[in-house]
Structures are given as structure tokens and as C-alpha cells.
Amino acid sequence: MHMPRAMVWSAAAVMLLTCLGQVSADGQEAVTARTAIKDHRFQPDEIRVPANTPITLVIRNLDPTPEEFESKMLRVEKIVTGKAEITIRLRPLAPGRYRFYGDFNEATAEGAIIAE
Fold first, then answer.
1. What is the pLDDT of residue 25?
2. Which among 24, 28, 80, 86 could disulfide-bond with 61, CB atoms 3.0 to 4.6 Å apart, if both were Cys?
């Protein structure tokens, strides 16, 4: 069976975007949310995102020391070295509040993603 060239290219584009985290497997486009770490605090410390939508979370560490972004609720644990940036792809979240914190400075580095 021969597939029309446009269908092949379309399927390839969806697969590529899914691999890059821009589109979920069901075709939903990801929303990008950002936060920064400065003076061992997340800024902003509350991130609002649409519920039931894939999320690309970009975290920039402006401090010279590393921090560990951690969230038991989101099942994420990732080091952000000093003066660096990481990207985390999150599954679509049901409406609610999802706590995260900096494991190396938990007393000051804390925040939440609020899916609405």
C-alpha cells in the first residue's frame, strides 16, 4: 500500500514534534512555563498553566551554586547547575496545585504549579 507523500510528511512532522516535546502523543500542543532561581528562591514561585495540557517547564538558575528541582507530586527530580538552564516536559495535569521545591535549599526555594 502506497501512502500519499503529504501524509508521510505530516506523520513525520507529528512524530518529530512529539519527540521534541512540542506536541503530545494525542496532538496537544505544549504550553511553555518559566521560572528562575535567584538567591535560593523560585521567581515566580507560583506558575499558572492550563489544566489537561502538556507543559514544557524551563528553569533558569541565576545563582552560581547548583539546585535540585524536586517535586514528589510531579515525580520530577533534576539538578540545575549554577548559571544554567534546564527544560522539563510534564504530562498534562489535572486541575490542582502541585508543589515543587529546591532540595538543596528547601527552607527558601519552594513553589507550586497551579493547573486551572
1. 59
2. 80
Specify whether the backbone of 29 is left (phi greater than 0), alpha (psi in -120 to 50) or beta: beta
- Which domains does the chain possess? 28-115 (2.60.40.420)
Q: pLDDT digits over 26-54, tens only?
A: 578 999 999 999 999 999 999 999 999 99
Angstrom distances, CA of residue 14 to CA of 6, 8, 21 = 12, 10, 10
- Report the distance separating Cα 89 and Cα 56, nearest Å: 5
Instruction: Report whether 30 contacts 21 (CB < 8 A).
Output: yes
Distance CA 98, CA 116 (A): 11
In angstroms, rounded to a whole number, what is the distance separating the alpha carbons of residues 65 and 80?
Answer: 9
pTM score of the predicted model: 0.77
